[in-house]
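Page header: ASSEMBLY MODEL / two components / 1488 residues total.
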Amino acid sequence: MASLTDITAAAYINLVSILTFLLAFAFLRLQPINDRVYFPKWYLKGTRGSPKGSGVLVGKFVNLDVKTYLKFWTWMPEALRMPEMELIQHAGLDSVAYIRIYLLGLKIFVPIAALAFAVLVPVNWTGGTLDGMKDLTYSDVDRLSISNVPAGSIRLLAHVLMAYVVTFWTCYVLYREYENVTKKRLQFIASEGRRPEQFTVLVRNIPRSFDESVSEEVEHFFRVNHPETYLLHQIVYDTKNLAKLVEEKKRLKNWLTYYEMRFERNQKKRPKTKTGLWGLFGKSVDAIDYYRAELEDISNEEAAERDKLMRDPKCIVPAAFVSFRSRWGASVCAQTQQTSNPIRWLTEWSTEPRDVFWDNLAIPYIKLSVRRLIMAVSTFFLTFFFMIPIAFVQSLASIDGIQKVFPFLTPLIKMEAIKAIVQGFLPGLALKIFMAILPTILNSMSRIEGHTSCSALDRRTAAKYYLFILVNVFFGSIITGAAFQQLHKFLNQAPSEIPKTIGVSIPMKATFFITYTMVDGWAGIAAEIIRLVPLIVFHLKNTFLVKTEEDRQQAMDPGCVNFATTEPRIQLYFLLGLVYSVITPLILPFIIVFFAFSYTIHRHQIINVYNQKYESGAKFWPDVNRRVLTGLMLSQILLMGLLSTKKAAISTPLLLALLIATIWFHKFCKGRFESAFVKFPLQEAMKKDTVDRAIEPNMNLRAYLEDAFIHPALKGIDMKNPPPIAEDDNNSVVSTKRKSRRPS
Amino acid sequence: MASLTDITAAAYINLVSILTFLLAFAFLRLQPINDRVYFPKWYLKGTRGSPKGSGVLVGKFVNLDVKTYLKFWTWMPEALRMPEMELIQHAGLDSVAYIRIYLLGLKIFVPIAALAFAVLVPVNWTGGTLDGMKDLTYSDVDRLSISNVPAGSIRLLAHVLMAYVVTFWTCYVLYREYENVTKKRLQFIASEGRRPEQFTVLVRNIPRSFDESVSEEVEHFFRVNHPETYLLHQIVYDTKNLAKLVEEKKRLKNWLTYYEMRFERNQKKRPKTKTGLWGLFGKSVDAIDYYRAELEDISNEEAAERDKLMRDPKCIVPAAFVSFRSRWGASVCAQTQQTSNPIRWLTEWSTEPRDVFWDNLAIPYIKLSVRRLIMAVSTFFLTFFFMIPIAFVQSLASIDGIQKVFPFLTPLIKMEAIKAIVQGFLPGLALKIFMAILPTILNSMSRIEGHTSCSALDRRTAAKYYLFILVNVFFGSIITGAAFQQLHKFLNQAPSEIPKTIGVSIPMKATFFITYTMVDGWAGIAAEIIRLVPLIVFHLKNTFLVKTEEDRQQAMDPGCVNFATTEPRIQLYFLLGLVYSVITPLILPFIIVFFAFSYTIHRHQIINVYNQKYESGAKFWPDVNRRVLTGLMLSQILLMGLLSTKKAAISTPLLLALLIATIWFHKFCKGRFESAFVKFPLQEAMKKDTVDRAIEPNMNLRAYLEDAFIHPALKGIDMKNPPPIAEDDNNSVVSTKRKSRRPS
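Prediction written out in full:
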């Protein structure tokens, strides 16, 4: 077991390496050549045209201004300085709410850590159980933990009290934060300019009729049932084929550009390519001519497909975007049930046009219901039994396995070097590959579930990923053994025994989780800020591909907050902090460092780097709140189990009452705030409508909304370039402020 | 253990006694003197003024027409003959949906019983495990059950298959029935005439303002946010005091009438009463003068209280009934969120005026939330730990207990006769009293939960009662031992062991449940039809109190379908039928007899007797559906446990898949139908509005709605006499038909 000195040493090493990374970042970001990697957001905003530098040629690539190097650390205070209101306008509410998760962690754990070190650590340290013991499984970390308190001691009362303090403080902070985010969301919605989605409702499961087209039916239905407010509607086409063609056309165009550039640089030789797979096999032809011809073919095909879409009624999906004369009308329609058959004419508030997930709009209700069932079962199996196929692959990837399947490879793998690789590397590789593609698998599963917006997809994926991490990382580390073995254990153990089994092993795993926090959490931060992959990719593209300024723009990969994979990881640290705050408070400083660094760095990233793909207005906050509360409840249950093995069974009813209070708090929060994230209140809609009418009485809303919800493939515009969104004038404030932050 | 012959004998005895009851009923109902006990519904409808009979004086009390006695059995086909549409108009949808629960039982269990006796019984009978056994704990009932099939036998496949058939058939019938009831509900709502609740929304949690009164605030808010549709509103007064005064006044009036009547009959002596407790202690005074004076006092008090209500703004509750110009407007307001604070201005579709539970309208959101928490915890304790106080009372009610607490009674209880009573009667009495007042306790708990309508109260009470019956009757009988002992067992046993423990004892309890069905279920039917208590009470009142025709009207106690206590009992038989259909199909005929008799008799009762207190439009059906499905899931889990002890572990995944499919079916049903019971679709509202406007373009809706939602105490009208509700002309059809059914 790692002793306190070991952990201090590890923390020291980790901190130094992070600081090295940060220094490297501080150096790299000052080089004009990296400007587009570390400040793409500003290029996309249009406030920065080209990297600034001294006039010399070298100055275009390397920063020669010595003064700026002396102020290398200034990015940190700069990142923290931008006021939140401005940040919301600059990066959107989603991003701001996202970094508030880290802030939430700090708010919860800093006071708890202070209290725990002031009260609990002395109580544990003087507990004296481990004093006489020469047991090697205990180290001085355990002296700081509850393990050092004798069973049945009155000192355990301090731990129960601490659990109460932790619960009440966490709930208080969560409540304030939920209130805060709700207020921000409402302000954000209120302050936004006119946006198409405010007037629009997504209608699904439109019944097919033989007499009318979908379009006519929608028009009739809404003219009758919303006579005062209905304005227009846009039907949805089945654009799967067209989208594929557009994608293929883009790929071909890319190749054509590449070969044209090659030819331009080296005019002596026309580039050649092969017509077969990956350009490696088949007949050799002139590349430029070949791709031009292909491009023409596909353009014709695309035109034909568009034509077909417009003419063939079978290509029209039973879904539509219906727009209303006022926000009030849209809000009413989105919140009400239209017909007596509740699976027909389903209405929901539309998301932003760029957030719409077009492929899922057509799924009928029953199919959707079956799909969700299948995905629920799949998630269960994926979470608990994923180790089985991986173990199978690992057994194949062993020396014996390879010899069996590919006997002809036997002489090769008999070689010492290759044998070492196979034995040491391959088995782990299967697991690594699985973990890397896991988010993609989960995302596909969420897609099959049939959500209609990208933001909803991300939220559902996050929920699945959280379950996976909870079972396989948290419980997996504590109980040791694959998830299905845990499951087997749980099913064959009394419900009152399970928290005991886990509770007992929790203090022993404290050092493991401290190390995990450093290796996974701290290292993640460093990787985040230095953006190694985008840095390399950008420079490669810049060197080999970029020709014009526009190309350079496209070579930038700003990325975005990947909510689906990062939020569940943050939740793991909330869980660890809450569980160990009473048991082994030593872990808290490590978690606080994680939250503090993450907050600063992500604040920097959303200001300078990330370009969000959609804006949902912090719609994910109810999930965040629920998961932190889940962590809190788990911590109470596990403490209950641990204390009941410590001959402090009297604590069980006390902690049970706490658990019930927490569940109640969860329900209360849900009732108090959640609807603000789902519904659009009529009063707010009415206010904005009234203001709008006063300011622009003659606004042509029809023209404004007519083309707002059209599949990007039909517009011929790429999905990643949403139509320009009306933004208010405050934007200029951001751009002016920005200048003072440039390295100069 | 009871053998097959024993059970047959018991069934014979029970059937004979039921038939005796039915004969007694057939005789009693023909007597004109009992007419108001067995046909009160027709008196309340106004289609029957006085009992018909031959002209002779005796004929007024006893039926002398011999012919009618020969056709004594005709009430049964008569009860079944009325078509359902007419029945809905006659008795309301609530009652009709209620008797459809019995019909649902028949639809589910008749085919299952046929199949089980055709397939499962032969399979069990020839199983042969119990052939050689001379074990006294087994009887020939067990030969028909799964106990007779050897462990690990291939025959068990038949049981698994049967479980599949039962599940699919039950789900199919439930789906069809849900669809049917939904359709009926929508038709019912569509066919109803104009009713105030269609135009009205209940608004709660109106924020207090210092500048405006509640009334002004409501008017402003809805004029702004529903400008096109808002019509008027009615504020709610805190009428608790007034209602008490009205109640007291009624009591005093009753006494006055009683004494006036006594004086009238015996004019020689003016009646006396005493002023103290219950008229037993204190000064003796002239009764008529005394009550007249008291009545005057209370009338003055009442007038003062009414005056205060109208003037004091503190007596106005932050809730209001808001009425709209159209059903569409009300439907929109009820379904939408009004403000950004989701716990302010809560709107819900109003219930009928007579269904409103006035006392709960004022409870603020947070208080409501706390109350529900407390009631949830209380329900848990009541369900699992109710035996503890009862055991305590029982120990007090023993000989030793009485000697300890009341030593002076020692000589008395030493007497043999009294000793026998104390020992044999008192301990059981405590439990009996508790079971009798349990529905009242549960109802008070639901009241504290703060529901705003009587129908919701009944539904919530039924849910609590179902839990109680499930735990204490079903599981209590199987596991034997008080509920908290079961709970202790469950907590200390592996989750996979619990179904096994229960599963094993289920076949052994079959005879017990067969007896239970006869004693509780069959006997309940007989008690229902003969209406012994109302019969006696009516004749007592009729003899001693009734003076005028109006008095006689009031002496009738038609009663109503008591959903809160009867539905959970029906659910117990669904549960028994589903659990035993695969294990011991012998129980099914007994359950079918229960459902068949109950259906006929309740159909008779809702036609001739019951007078419903409110009409919720079968709003309870989602609960019924959910509970039957709960029973189905329990049956699958228990079968899983039983089969896994029969060395047929291979069946577990098969049954697990079935369980998941059932859960999915539940969710699907919920999504498919439930909203029809909660929301009022806009299309339906619009249709009715349009028809209304076409028929009566000049309808003065304001006058119609103005006083619709006023507390009965404020109107000076008794709560049980709701304002007359507009009914359509079809009513006359019922009244004309009725004549043919009279004994003549």
